[in-house]
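Complex record, two chains
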Amino acid sequence: MPKIVDHDKQRLLVAEAAWRIIRKNGMEQASVRNIAEEAGISVGSMRHYFSTQSELLLYAMNLVSERVTARIQSMSFDGPPMEHMKQLLLEFIPNTDEKMAEMEVWYAFTAKSKTDPALKKLADTVYNDIRRAVEIVITSLVKLGIFRPDLNQELEIERLYALIDGLAIHAVLRPDQMNGQLMDEALTLHLTSLCP
Amino acid sequence: MPKIVDHDKQRLLVAEAAWRIIRKNGMEQASVRNIAEEAGISVGSMRHYFSTQSELLLYAMNLVSERVTARIQSMSFDGPPMEHMKQLLLEFIPNTDEKMAEMEVWYAFTAKSKTDPALKKLADTVYNDIRRAVEIVITSLVKLGIFRPDLNQELEIERLYALIDGLAIHAVLRPDQMNGQLMDEALTLHLTSLCP
């Protein structure tokens, strides 16, 4: 059993090295050779952990999604429902250094996913998961009887989802202008505007 | 003079070949060799048009921005002001095949801009230009006396800008779910919600 644990641990270390390369030097530099060097292991022993570069990149991309999911699953909800919903949505927004690192890597992977079928499949699953989270928020507002009855639920799901991703991407691309406080304010304002 | 025209024309052909490579095979494949082959010219003669790969990519990225600017400058405004503003904002949203091609290329370039200072500088200029366009929309609503007085203008500029980019990115990444009609509806709804 310790052997398996070590194996998983090494895969994680390699994936984290891939993240650092992607953030520092870009996806173009995410070769097996560069990642092995960053991880401090030989190119030869990389084969024990990942058979191909594609497998490695898929694992590294999936790690972003796993970390977000783990955080959401560990959330405790014991305040006002409106606050829960905001907290849930804030998980998709890079308002800490850790989440910013994840978001930067995720952005690079989504760009690559346009021409890589395996990454595309994973990206599609994640988009659907996030959309479902946004849907839960909107339907919860409806169930609570605080959602404005003149609004179209489907359209509001898409508008809120687009807002979240827009804020997240601005935090990555315009970090001097878009910060955690501003994202929080925009999200609060938006949620409030959906309720009379 | 005809020589200069030809030179500019060839640069354009090369940049368009770069767009095709980026869309088809990803930024990782946008080498001078691959782009020359796609453009149907020799690697040797590429030197006449661009001294380096960086210069070529910067030109190809700037071409996206130039095309959007040209479309905005050729817009004629002769309907209700609210409709003008929506039309202006729709220019940043990929609701035609041509604009979708531009947006896909732009997305790949912004991802690369995180680790490429020259592309970053251009990206920053474009982000500021788009923010200014969004600011013009909000301040026009204020001047027309139709902007809700309880709203914060600065926050609404950022929220609208994030929404526009979120919709645009969803059109690129989730084309089966986010289409031109839905983007138009979301934008119309959002602009309407800013006015009493």
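Note: DSSP finds nine helices and no strands in chain B.
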